[in-house]
Amino acid sequence: MISKDFQHVRAWVFDLDNTLYHPSARLFDQIEVKMTDWMMRSLALGREEADRLRSSYWQLHGTTLAGLMREHDVDPVPYLADVHDISLAHLTADALLAQQIGQLPGRRIVFTNGTAPYAERVLEARGLSGLFDAVYGVEHTGYRGKPEREAYEAIFAADGLDPAEGAMFEDDPRNLAVPHALGMRTVHVAELATPAPHIHHHTDDLTAFLGRLLEPADGH
After folding, report:
1. What angle do CA 22, 24, 26 make, to 5 degrees?
2. Is the four-CA dihedral 161, 163, 168, 170 of positive or negative sign?
3. For 2-27, what is the mean pLDDT?
């Protein structure tokens, strides 16, 4: 019974993209195109080089934004407004997921490397508005992104969250290393499992996983 592993949890932290909706919605395909287009315009690059840099910065710095800020001193505000101006037409409401999240005992928050306004749009499209006690974007971390430890510490301090009583749900396995080190229960939400010492659980179906998690620990 996985519910036993979560009996102590009173703070539920969810990533947004590809975690609170299925990757088949392909929102990040749109965002990546926007990132590449922005880099072509702002850095005077060809598409191939801009696309290569976008991917390279994500791998080296954790997010493309972090690489742009460190390597090019980019102002994050207009960049983020531009790359998150995408269509959410492929998202649908998920009443069962909303029900499962609403039943989680304790505090529920969203922590995304996107912006909070973008997150609110996604939550609304998924029928998840009003379920979370707080929605934190990269603007709340001083534009530091996961997987940087300082990003988590900033959000958890702002929220008054005790990691020892927390669980983190994430699609990117890199972003679970710090939560694990801080004492959180970690759940990798993705089609394919990535076995690692810092990942406690894996699921390819968040709604079903939360359903099992909410079952009484004694099975009754």
Report:
1. 105
2. positive
3. 96
Average pLDDT over residues 139-161: 96
Locate the domains of the chain by residue range: 2-22+91-213, 27-83
pTM: 0.93
Q: Which amino acid is residue 43, in one-letter code?
A: L
pLDDT at 31 over 90: yes
Residue 220 pLDDT > 70: no
2-22+91-213 placed in CATH 3.40.50.2000: no
